[in-house]
Amino acid sequence: MSNRMINILVPVISVILGLLVGAIVMAVSGYDPILGYTALWNGIFGDSYAIGETIRQITPYILAGLAVAFAFRTGLFNIGVEGQLIVGWFAAVYVGAAFDLPKVIHLPLSILAGAAAGALWAFLPGLLKAKMKIHEVIVTIMMNYIALHVVNALIKTWSGGGDKTERILDSASLRSDFLASLTDYSRLHYGIIIALMMVVLMWFLLEKTTMGFELKSVGFNENASEYGGMKIGKNIILAMVISGAFAGLAGAMEGLGTFGNMYTRGGFTGIGFDGIAVALLGANTPLGVIFGAVLFGSLKYGALNMPNAAQIPEEIVQIVIALVIFFVACGYAIRLLLSKISKKKEAK
Amino acid sequence: MEYVIEMLNIRKEFGNFVANDNITLQLGKGEIHALLGENGAGKSTLMNVLFGLYQPEGGEIRVRGKKVDITDPNVANDLGIGMVHQHFMLVENFTVTENIILGNEPTKGGSLNISAAAKKVAELSRQYGLNVDPYAKIEDISVGMQQRVEILKTLYRGAEILIFDEPTASLTPQEITELIAIMRKLITEGKSIILITHKLQEIMDVSDRVTVIRKGKGIGTVITDESSPEELASLMVGRQVVFKTEKGPSHPTEEVLTVKDLVVTDSRNVEKVKRLNLNVRRGEIVGIAGIDGNGQSELIEAITGLRKVKAGTVAINGKDITNKRPRQVTESGVGHIPQDRHKHGLVLDFPIGHNIALQTYYQKPLSKGGIIDYKAIDRFAEGIIEQYDVRTQGPHEPARALSGGNQQKAIIGREVERDPDLLIAALPTRGLDVGAIEFIHRRLIEQRDNGKAVLLVSFELDEVMNVSDRIAVIYDGMIIDTVIPSETDEQELGLLMAGHSRKEAAAIQAEEGDDKHVQ
Amino acid sequence: MAKRKFGLALSVLLAAGTLLGACGSGNDDASKDNGKKEGSGEKTSEFSVAMVTDVGGIDDKSFNQSAWKGIQDFGKANDMEKGDGGYDYLQSAGEEDYIPNLNALARRDFSLVFGVGFMMQDAMDEIASQQKDTEFAIIDAVVDQPNAASILFKEQEGSYLAGVAAALMTESKKVGFVGGMENEVIHRFESGFVAGVKAVDPEIDVDVQYAGAFDKAEIGKTMANRMYSSGVDIIFHAAGGTGNGVFSEAKERKAADADANVWVIGVDSDQYDEGAVGDTNVTLTSMLKRVDIAVEDISKRAKEGKFPGGETHVYGLSEDGVDLADSRGAIPEDVMKKIEDYKEKIKSGEIEVPEYPEGKEPKK
């Protein structure tokens, strides 16, 4: 079996296995699996509205996945994507609401503000790791909580005790009448294009530049990289900052595209943590992240339609969705199995 | 001869790859039987078949004349086969006895009976002259002593047949001598030994017969006394091997490396290099001889910018490079074959091609304006792979997949190709077989002949003696003497390395000479 | 090679999206228009109602559950069935789900769609402006659209009575308040409660704490632990799931020591069952926020064609929108009488309960 065949076959088999087990769960609980999956399908692809919303849901997942994947590829575990996303969201909304500028300046500025805030939030863990060897996992986890509560406090201060920010001005919005009319008033916004551009950017940085060569090298082996003349500290900080910028952009997508403002939150958005799964599903490659994000985003959005159209309770739906993702994650086990089988065959 | 183990026509395949092809090894009772082969020749595979870790595709194994089926290591243990691994499998913070009984703990009424075990360990230790303290902690004892614990472990479990896998790889010369004595003692006590090695001198010193394998094939078995190192080497490599690399006299010219009053501390701030002075000139190889841990690593790291210098200066071609960053050092004309190729020399998860570009990836023509040209890197790597005989599937194979010798050749290619004025080679042949060693020595001499300065650090006396034009002996962070190879011998050098002055060394040598006369 | 493959994948993805989007929208516009026309014809004869929960979910033992009860009661009273054309709900897992859920229900031609919770304000504003043929109603917030009704409660009035009850029942002269997140709604609870306590006895200490979340029972438990340990004997919580932690702390103390003087005042619905410890109960009473009554009321009006679009309805004591639950003997008769007096005074307007806690008035 060729590698390419395995690469295509594995996700397909995994998804089918997941759906099968999910069907059993639905059937055992007394719901019609065919009705359920029809609802899921329609929830994802059913009409232009669903497709628009699905793509909207995928957008932040791509960016969060890139953030985690980029860090992974450079030997870092950025659990702080969630916090970087939250500060990025706030910064983007702040710039989007507080300034009145022409769109050509205002929109890019707001997006950049989100990226910069995320980058800044990741800079600190990078600095601590580079200078004092403090493990980034601990720092980034704590930075998540700091982000959550600092941003809540900022929203409160800004809104004079309220629980949400002002809405961004139209000049900072990623939404457009064109996309809305194309998708029957879904919240689809131009963020998907930014996300795809970032996919290309990550691939370019890692695979084409000396910077990427150094980042990967330092991630694999700091000693050999130092021997090869690279600056270890600089590269660790740079890797965190780039990862954080991706995360901040994910937040900017929510702020400038999906919501147009920001609420005080009782808990995390979850996108940053799902980003870890997205990155792992995508084997930490830029293209793989798209695959992971499409899977996560589609299932998450499509699942909303299962209670709606098939009367399946939320809890069962969550189990089914988790099963599909679980089996895709197990895909690596399936891949291993397939390659072992094919190796044995070759041997004989 | 009565055979305790017979491995007849063993064949072992991994997919399309035949690791053992028709190999026969017969171990006589009370014999030390060497198994000789280059790295990757299939020695370990054969022993793993004997130890039950692999099942052979063909051939049969007989133990004491009876055909057996060794399905797993427990079967091997029951048959009295014990393995002394190259990498010790010991728990650092356990005592000797605790390590020996691990996995096989004697109990009395449900609780561990350490003292009984310790008593047995002490007895065994006395019987075989191992001199091991049963209550010592592993982390407190020397590497040689740890190896004896491994030997005790197999004896404790009743092994009659001991397999030693590269036992001298990490031992000092004194420890090697002691190990050979222990192996002889084991034989007189009725044990039989298989010795896996690629070091010819050891085989000549200790073994009765030698079975040679080359690229997975059994070449044959010879009686040691009727053979010579030269014959064994050519059997192993498949061609004539030159031991003492031919080289002409050196013609040193101007100074390239100048180290003045250098002081370097280790990570715990202990002074490891103490006001050291050293110089290397164009057209000469200076060997640094010394026992491990006398400041060699710190000296090299300080010169190459990997470690901060506390005091003193380092200059290349008269230009001060003290405490410059590694890149500035390499760009001033220094090539460095690092002592630990896995830690510093290679990014093991990178393709070998990337590794070959590790020092130059940022320069034209490999990259331009921050954009890397991976095609150029491939071309560059392919050139080095070809020129330096790096055996690999190509520049995209991960460095991890290459054998140690080929990894080292790639590193040497990378460093030499930059045409440095000073080439530093730290333990460049560690763990390599004779073929690779010969290749590397030639390259070092070639550099010298091209008018470069070469600084060689080695723990192997014969390497220092053979390759260097000048030997600087390092002891306790200082160069205590400089000798010319033709004017000294291994004994004198060994004594110098142990911290004796040349005068003292001469006195000791004279005394030993007298002793020999008396005997 | 790799580059080409990637480019191809990218363009396929984009093209697919646009194509699907384009044809989808064409078809859909047509079908929706048809649907709406039929729908508007049917609407007078067949009234249907649905709701979208916030992240709390349908069984939050709080206002989502209460709102669903109101819809079910209304459905049963009018012989409706669960599902299209009858009554139904959709649950939101996160804020991003509000809009799709509201939209989905509007597309299923429900006549009236409720959004439960102030968090849904922006989402409903957006959907109401798009789905002009559907009537919407939001609870705890104001949406300024002609086809949207806003439902507010005078939580401060009910909380005032809870404060009075606490003040009359406390032995330690120390009572506590645990809020979920700081926002205008929860501030009304706090304000009313504190005012009620102080009206009885200004000397009584009120320990006010906010957990910062509605779904963190462990935080609620820690806060209750601290309060009870510092001598507080009655805690009023307005914290949703976080409040469950307050109950479990009180129950643990009661289970360990039957004489422990610890009480909880529940919120939104009658939380008597939450407080049961063996034969005893730590629930003093509950401040009822009758979302069910409001939901049923608005549904009824809509069915009769009197939907209060664009209006804001405020449910207070007089409208039976807020009240205290049956204490089941935990509060003695004479105390109940005093509480009744306060209730009448509020209803008559003699007492006006402040909407904002001191120092937390809106700045604008």
From TrEMBL, chain A:
InterPro entries: ABC_transp_permease (IPR001851)
Membrane-spanning ranges: 7-28, 58-79, 85-102, 109-128, 134-155, 188-206, 236-259, 271-296, 316-338
GO CC, one annotated term: plasma membrane
MF annotations from Gene Ontology: transmembrane transporter activity
Residue stretches in coiled coil: none
Membrane topology: Multi-pass membrane protein
Localization per record: Cell membrane
Domain of life: Bacteria
Major location category of this protein: membrane
Keywords: Cell membrane, Membrane, Transmembrane, Transmembrane helix
PANTHER family assigned: ABC TRANSPORTER, PERMEASE PROTEIN, GUANOSINE ABC TRANSPORTER PERMEASE PROTEIN NUPP
Protein name: Nucleoside ABC transporter membrane protein
Source species of the chain: Edaphobacillus lindanitolerans
TrEMBL record, chain B:
CDD domains: ABC_Carb_Monos_I, ABC_Carb_Monos_II
A Pfam entry, by short name: ABC_tran
The keyword Transferase appears for this protein: no
Keywords: ATP-binding, Cell membrane, Membrane, Nucleotide-binding, Repeat, Translocase, Transport
Entry membrane topology: Peripheral membrane protein
Molecular function terms, GO-annotated: ATP binding; ATP hydrolysis activity
Domain of life of the native organism: Bacteria
Keyword Glycosyltransferase appears in the UniProt entry: no
Gene3D superfamilies named among the record's database cross-references: P-loop containing nucleotide triphosphate hydrolases
Subcellular location: Cell membrane
ABC transporter domain: residues covered: 5-240, 257-501
UniProt xrefs under SMART domains: AAA (SM00382)
GO cellular component terms listed in the entry, alphabetical order: plasma membrane
Family: Belongs to the ABC transporter superfamily.
Name the UniProt record assigns to this protein: Nucleoside ABC transporter ATP-binding protein
Organism: Edaphobacillus lindanitolerans
UniProtKB/TrEMBL annotation, chain C:
Domain ABC transporter substrate-binding protein PnrA-like: 48-355
Membrane topology: Lipid-anchor
Keyword Nucleotide-binding among UniProt keywords: no
Major location (coarse): membrane
Signal sequence, renumbered to the chain: 1-21
CDD domains in the cross-refs: PBP1_PrnA-like
Keywords: Cell membrane, Lipoprotein, Membrane, Signal
Record-linked Gene3D superfamilies: 3.40.50.2300
PROSITE patterns in the cross-refs: PROKAR_LIPOPROTEIN
GO cellular component: plasma membrane
A matching Pfam family: Bmp
Compartmental location: Cell membrane
Keyword Lipoprotein included in the entry's annotation: yes
Family, per entry: Belongs to the BMP lipoprotein family.
Name of this protein: Nucleoside-binding protein
Species in which this protein is naturally found: Edaphobacillus lindanitolerans
High-level lineage: Bacteria, Bacillati, Bacillota, Bacilli, Bacillales
